[in-house]
């Protein structure tokens, strides 16, 4: 999907040399060592610089940490802080060994305050040990396709074997922003969490200055260690369209972030053909409590084009269904087909269509099915008994036949009637 859209955008750009030159002139000069700008929904790349260069990523690591806490942990569970976690250096919320906090409070400290001690405490609570949690981080990164990423800790303190890329960070952040709890916390400028044994609460202040500098800014995560330089994964949403930027080792982080995201909104526009989770069609269900099941796309079907392009005609969404009708029950999330964006005979992008809700069998259908099964069982039993009877009769006949000698089987003339 990404390759098809990128090829299409490239083709559109090359149709007008003057327009292409204008677009290049508008692109900001980014001094960050590595950077990328993407559409948050589709991952379509609008700008990149050294996007696949492996680099130290500091506390932007905590994007994956928080994602796993949400996916694998019980946020209402109460966690006991270990001595190891409490002694984690640098950014912290001053956890004490034996202190007990809800996992959700530790999550807030990880994302809002970027607390290293909270990251280790949460990792131990979720996976049993920091090492096991890190193994899960690497496994999840591979599942997402972040193939140039390797974690050695959940907080981002420097390690030569701990690295990622601008492209991979954008991929992980896009996935994490699908979580409402993650999205809520990374857009929070400040909040408080309990401080057991104290007369006050812990106040958490977000280090992401873009939340105050740029209209629509709603995340995601800052990071800094000496070896990485200033790092930022940023998200801005305007009129329902979200762009995400990643800058690694930037000499002027906030200015470059504003310039890169502003470039995206000023020079591109999004054409949306279907929205994630919103029904686009329905399929007839036989024998269900509802006569039809709604079909929802697994992701938004979108195309991002330069604003100066007028080639927004000819794009048509096509629905390809596995079957036009089906029998109950239907399970929510069951794959039902695809929605394909086409231009002429060319497929540009596609998303899976899923059943939007569970449709159980109707009572009448369940009764009829039960009766049908009973009848089938009875028929099968009759056939089995009949077959057994015939087989037994044949067996007895064969046994009697075998007992007779050849002489016995010949008719005796002395006893035949005259």
Task: Describe the 3D structure.
The chain is an alpha+beta fold. It contains 13 helices and 17 strands. The strands form five sheets. A six-stranded mixed beta sheet has the order 14-16-17-12-11-15, with helices on one face. A five-stranded antiparallel beta sheet has the order 2-1-9-8-7, with helices on both faces. Strand 8 (231-238) and strand 9 form a beta hairpin. Helix 5 (103-113) packs antiparallel against helix 6 (116-127). The chain is globular.
Detail the topology: elements first, then pairings.
Blueprint lengths: L1 H13 L2 H10 L7 E6 L5 E5 L12 H11 L5 E3 L2 H4 L13 E3 H11 L2 H12 L2 H15 L21 H11 L3 H7 L3 E4 L8 E4 L4 H4 L3 E7 L7 E8 L2 E8 L4 H15 E7 L6 E6 L5 E6 L3 E6 L8 E7 L3 E3 L7 E9 L2 E10 L7 H41 L2 H4 L9
Parallel strand pairs: 11-15
Antiparallel strand pairs: 1-2, 1-9, 3-4, 5-6, 7-8, 8-9, 10-13, 11-12, 12-17, 14-16, 16-17
Strand content: 15-25%
Instruction: Report mean pLDDT, rounded to a whole number.
Output: 86
Helix proportion:
25-40%
The neighbouring-strand order within the major sheet is 14-16-17-12-11-15
- Unreliable stretches (pLDDT < 50, length at least 5) are 1-25
SS-based class: alpha+beta
Q: Note the main sheet.
A: 6 strands, mixed
Q: Could you tell me the number of beta strands?
A: 17
């Amino acid at each position: 999907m990404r390759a098809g859209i990128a090829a299409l955008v490239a083709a559109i750009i090359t149709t007008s040399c003057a327009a292409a030159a204008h677009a290049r002139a508008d692109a900001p000069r980014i001094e960050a060592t590595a950077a990328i700008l993407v559409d948050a929904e589709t991952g379509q790349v609008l700008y990149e610089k050294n996007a696949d260069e492996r680099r130290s990523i500091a506390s932007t690591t905590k994007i994956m940490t928080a994602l796993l806490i949400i996916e694998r942990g019980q946020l209402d569970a109460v966690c006991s802080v270990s001595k190891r976690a409490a002694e984690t250096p640098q950014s912290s919320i001053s956890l004490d060994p034996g202190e007990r906090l809800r996992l959700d409070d530790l999550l807030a400290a990880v994302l809002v305050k970027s607390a290293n001690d909270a990251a280790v405490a949460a990792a131990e609570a979720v996976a049993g040990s920091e090492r096991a949690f890190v193994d899960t981080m690497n496994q999840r990164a591979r599942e997402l396709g972040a193939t140039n990423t390797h974690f050695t800790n959940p907080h981002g303190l420097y390690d030569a074997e701990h690295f990622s890329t601008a492209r991979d960070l954008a991929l992980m952040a896009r996935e994490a922003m699908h979580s409402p709890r993650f999205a809520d916390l990374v857009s929070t400028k400040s909040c408080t969490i309990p401080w057991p044994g104290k007369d006050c609460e812990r106040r958490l202040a977000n280090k992401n200055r873009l939340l105050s500098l740029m209209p629509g800014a709603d995340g995601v995560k800052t990071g800094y260690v000496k070896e990485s330089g200033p790092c930022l994964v940023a998200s801005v949403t305007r009129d329902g369209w979200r762009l995400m930027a990643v800058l690694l080792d930037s000499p002027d982080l906030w200015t470059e972030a504003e310039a890169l995201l502003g470039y995206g909104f000023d020079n591109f526009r999004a054409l949306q053909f279907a929205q994630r989770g919103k029904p686009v069609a329905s399929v007839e269900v036989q024998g269900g409590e509802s006569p039809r099941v709604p079909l929802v796309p697994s992701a938004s079907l979108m195309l991002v084009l330069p604003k100066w392009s007028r080639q927004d005609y000819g794009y048509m969404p096509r629905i390809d269904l596995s079957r036009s009708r089906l029998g109950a029950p239907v399970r929510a999330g069951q794959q039902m087909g695809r929605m394909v964006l086409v231009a002429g005979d060319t497929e540009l992008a596609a998303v899976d269509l899923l059943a939007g809700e569970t449709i159980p069998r109707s009572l009448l259908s369940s009764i009829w099915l039960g009766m049908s099964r009973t009848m089938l069982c009875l028929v099968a039993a009759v056939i089995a008994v009949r077959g057994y009877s015939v087989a037994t009769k044949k067996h007895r006949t064969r046994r009697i036949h075998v007992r007779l000698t050849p002489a016995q089987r010949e008719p005796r003339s002395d006893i035949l009637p005259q």
